[in-house]
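Researcher: I'd like a structural prediction for the single chain below. Treat it as a standalone chain; there are no partners to consider.
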Amino acid sequence: MSADPESRVAAAHLLEVRDLAVHFALKRSLGDRLGGRGSSVARAVDGVSLHLDAGELLALVGESGSGKTTLALAALRLLDPTAGTVLLEGSDVTALSRRQLRPLRRRAQLIHQDPYASLDPRLRTRDLIAEALRIHGLAPSKEAEQALVHDALTKVGLTPVESFAERYPHQLSGGQRQRVAIAGSLVLGPSLLVADEPVSMLDVSVRAGVLELLDRLRDEERLGILMITHDLATAAHVADRIAVMYHGNLVELGVAHAVIDSPRHPYTQALIHAVPRVHREEERVRTLPGEPPDASHVPPGCRFHPRCPIAEERCRVEVPQLLPAASGGTTLVACHLRSASAGPTTLREETLP
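Model: Treating it as a single chain, here is the predicted structure.
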């Protein structure tokens, strides 16, 4: 992939997403046809901007249906964006042809959520990992292929490699299967990993091991990792920064400990309040009223205002921008009452039900 002068300037970031939008046209129902109504559009992602650096782990969090996975797939060009730009290592990948995208597939790898479904049950571990090498022609000989496969297995902690290389997926535990999937991504020497809920399908007892593996890889291999999760506790464990997504938009973005310890957006606060606590005095879980809105029926103004406990009239008509929080620091927040544009007189605390 060749980078033009403009994209080379942006190469300071491993991955940069600018005003990315992914909209899906919905089929018209019989009632729509009879009523003469046009087709509607689901705005899965609607104007998101963020960046990721080498050696950094950015956690993208939010409820199911908030657009997290759609954003990640569009960043990898597994979905074509409706608008916006994606820069990978300084190159704009949004306009590349299928053939030009081939090198991108090596540099940016996806780790699927379900290790039980992502591995072909008919192949041994060595062939599962070597498949990508064969597709990209990266192993000139059987000996070179075996060395690369064994190196990938060693990096993910599956030793002795000779034993694990000969096993089929059904002979592995859930955590071992996810490590095989990670090894299959590492064997191509990527610079970016997108991990889609990498531990949600695993037993609690093995989740920490997989998270520690990802944490180690981003340090030792200088990988940039975009981790998608709905679990803020998981994000807090390994992430450098956290981006909170709601209904296709980013509502809060900042250093992980700042977002967890001092959340500014009411939605982020609700997510944190929903995490069960160990101590008895913190047992009560507080949840938001209502359900996330339909992506084909975007509410006017702030998309969170129908469920927000502090919404005002301005919130119902004016879309908030992602701006520095009024409380200071580096956290960005999309809230009329919490951003620097609000001013000290309108800043107030909410009362969650």
